[in-house]
């Protein structure tokens, strides 16, 4: 994505420039009336004078002004919450009052994807698309399917890998009426196929290669700032899969700074699963950097060549981030450069322990989201995050998305958890088996009543 080499009209449907780099949306801010302070946006929620203000995404519409208001497709997404959480702070080694969880599970389809899908669906409508598609580990498909289903604006086609999708998510796509193709491969294979299919058949693609989708995902950061009274935190910690979120967050902060709406930028930590750690390996081991939009292509090609030689399949229980060929790699490198970022990977065990803490003390989350808490803990242990820092962990998906992994963890089902290596379930809260007998039930309850 070299800077400013090509320009395309809003009415064109494309994800890449002629050189193959993903497109990026740019605005001529001099021509757009942007509020002079972020506080102005606050009034939107209290007054809700415009139906668009019911959306936690579109009430910030001046910060991604690509759509006429009458074309905007919204289903009330982005009404999410920033929760200060001392239980999780203690676990991560952060001072009381310093850790926040941004819970994106409250979106209509139960994940952060709706922030982006409302924007991609809007652009799809602007160009008259009747058929949309995505590849998915589950959440993108659930999100696209709900937008297609509720609005009736377009038919939805979904590609998923075999055995790679949590049932909660698959059931959403089916229920919302998406045509679902389960292909013999993983997410990386499914994305490759859907990109070809969309190109050839003129279907509108809604994965994070779609630059409009990332515009909507910027709003997660606007809401975090709003939740903090417009103060900039020290850290944003986010799980990394296809790297759309981290890319969008970096762009959000870059633009807010350019517009003079914030005076400093938080640091960004992107957390991979150890079994899907392309970014970690490339950033930390190979030293890959943004370099004015021209990261070393030879280094990238060589990395993937070696990966292919060794089979290169991603493997983690956090299926949402089981991705080894992140399409937004270059944009994420920009975000890391803008935000003085760091990248880490954490084991499945650390992810599930982090997730259990979020469940114990907060709204709960799906496995991939636990990576942000595990990442914050690791960075704290490494002395990179200070105990006094203000840290926001992004919880990307709802607790109910992947009950199989959650129940296996709490029940101590090591066999089920061992898919990608041994996982010790530390904070198990297994169901207690008890006879169908009143006295025996009372005996069990008495053991707990003194606590
Ligand atoms: C729940 C969840 N968390 C994290 C991610 C990773 O986000 P990204 O692809 O934007 O890096 C995904 C999907 O990609 C997801 O579904
Ligand atoms: N976890 C994702 C993977 C696809 O990512 P996308 O951001 O490119 O759509 C999913 O839920 O499918």
From TrEMBL:
Cofactor(s) needed: pyridoxal 5'-phosphate
Domain Tryptophan synthase beta chain-like PALP: 74-397
Enzyme superclass (EC): lyase
Highest taxon of source: Bacteria
Keyword Coiled coil in annotation: no
Molecular function per GO: threonine synthase activity
N6-(pyridoxal phosphate)lysine carried by residues: 113
Record keywords, A-Z: Amino-acid biosynthesis, Lyase, Pyridoxal phosphate, Threonine biosynthesis
GO biological process: threonine biosynthetic process
Pfam families cross-referenced by the UniProt entry: PALP
Enzyme Commission designation: 4.2.3.1
Function per UniProt: Catalyzes the gamma-elimination of phosphate from L-phosphohomoserine and the beta-addition of water to produce L-threonine.
UniProt record similarity statement: Belongs to the threonine synthase family.
Protein name: Threonine synthase
Gene symbol of the encoding locus: thrC_2
């Amino acid at each position: 994505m070299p800077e400013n080499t090509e320009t395309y009209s809003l009415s064109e449907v494309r994800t890449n420039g002629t050189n193959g780099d993903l497109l990026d949306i740019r605005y001529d801010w001099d021509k757009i009336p942007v509020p002079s302070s972020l506080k102005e946006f606050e009034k939107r929620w209290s007054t809700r004078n415009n139906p668009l203000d019911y959306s936690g995404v579109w009430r910030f519409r001046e910060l991604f002004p690509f759509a006429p208001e009458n074309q905007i497709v919204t289903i009330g997404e982005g009404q999410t919450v920033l929760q200060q959480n001392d239980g999780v702070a203690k676990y991560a080694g952060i001072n009381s009052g310093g850790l926040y969880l941004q819970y994106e599970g409250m979106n209509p389809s139960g994940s952060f994807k709706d922030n982006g899908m409302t924007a991609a669906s809007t652009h799809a409508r602007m160009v008259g698309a009747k058929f949309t598609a995505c590849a998915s580990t589950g959440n993108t498909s659930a999100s696209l399917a709900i937008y297609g289903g509720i609005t009736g604006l377009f038919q939805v086609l979904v590609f998923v890998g075999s055995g790679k999708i949590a049932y909660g998510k698959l059931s959403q796509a089916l229920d919302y009426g998406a045509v679902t193709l389960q292909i013999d491969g993983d997410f990386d294979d499914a994305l490759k196929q859907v990109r070809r299919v969309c190109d050839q058949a003129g279907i509108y693609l809604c994965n994070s290669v779609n630059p409009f989708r990332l515009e909507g995902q910027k709003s997660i950061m606007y809401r975090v700032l709003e939740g903090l009274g417009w103060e900039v935190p020290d850290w944003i910690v986010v799980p990394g899969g296809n790297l759309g979120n981290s890319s969008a967050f970096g762009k959000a902060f870059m633009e807010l700074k350019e517009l003079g709406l914030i005076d400093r930028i938080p640091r960004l930590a992107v957390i991979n699963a150890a079994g899907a750690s392309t970014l970690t390996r490339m950033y930390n081991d190979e030293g890959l950097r943004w370099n004015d939009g021209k990261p070393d292509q030879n280094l990238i090609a060589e990395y993937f060549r070696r990966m292919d030689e060794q089979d290169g399949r991603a493997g983690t229980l956090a299926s949402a981030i089981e991705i080894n060929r992140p399409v937004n790699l270059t944009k994420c490198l920009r975000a890391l450069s803008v935000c003085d970022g760091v990248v880490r990977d954490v084991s499945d065990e650390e992810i599930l322990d982090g997730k259990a803490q979020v469940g114990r003390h907060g709204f709960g989350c799906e496995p991939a989201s636990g990576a942000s808490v595990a990442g914050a803990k690791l960075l704290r242990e490494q002395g990179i995050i200070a105990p006094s820092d203000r840290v926001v962990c992004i919880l990307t998906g709802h607790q109910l998305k992947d009950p199989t992994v959650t129940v296996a963890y709490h029940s101590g089902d090591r066999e089920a958890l061992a898919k990608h290596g041994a996982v010790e379930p530390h904070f198990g809260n297994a169901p207690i088996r008890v006879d169908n007998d009143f006295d025996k039930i009372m005996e069990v309850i008495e053991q707990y009543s003194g606590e």
